[in-house]
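Allow me, if you will, to draw on your knowledge of protein folds for a short while. I have a record of one protein: its chain in single-letter code and its fold written as discrete structure tokens. Kindly check, if you would, that the fold set down in the tokens agrees with what the sequence suggests. Thank you for your consideration; the sequence and its tokens are set out here:
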Amino acid sequence: MEVNVSMIPAARDGECNAYLIERNGECVLIDAPEQAVDVVKKITNNGKKLTAVILTHGHFDHIFGLKAIEKYSGAKVYMHEAETSMLRDTSMNLAGLAYLPSTFPVYTGSVTPLHDGSSLTIADITYQIFHAPGHTPGCICIAMGSMIFTGDFIFKSSIGNTSFPNSKPLDMERSLQRFINTFGSGEYTLCPGHGEKTMLSREIKYNQFFQ
């Protein structure tokens, strides 16, 4: 069966991209911003099933819709084991900068922890987990065939911010080098948490942070 990948783009400042992967009526959501809630409701009402939500990291823009999405769909939630505490900590997930802590929809449900090298197979699609600390301690990329969902690790011509309280610039440098060593010889489409898609070959050639 054909695999359909669609981007749920950020609708306004303060939101991030999400990605919906669907095969034979079974879906996986990469990240859970607010604008993804209505998309999940729509596909569910159309008879499709959201099986899993895989979070690239725990900043508020990537998890704002998680509570509603999990409640509505019953999807299993996955994120890196170093990141799970950020779901409930509005200072570390930066929600406190944009919302009153009492108004942010904190997710308190179950999470299945991931680690570097984890592999998930859902609807005969395999997702490989690459741990990329730097932007946050548990930031991950998710490789699926020739696509890599990079969250806030790599953007077109840029990389994730490393000035946040739990960011580490040296970890980011190491993650970038390991990422190139792991994927640099292949031709991959990078699907970032912000901005447009890009090609890994382009970023290796033109992204100043790869030099």
Q: What stands out?
A: Helices lie at 36-45, 60-63, 66-73, 95-98, 169-183, 200-206. The domain at 3-210 is CATH 3.60.15.10 (Metallo-beta-lactamase; Chain A). DSSP finds six helices and 14 strands in the chain.
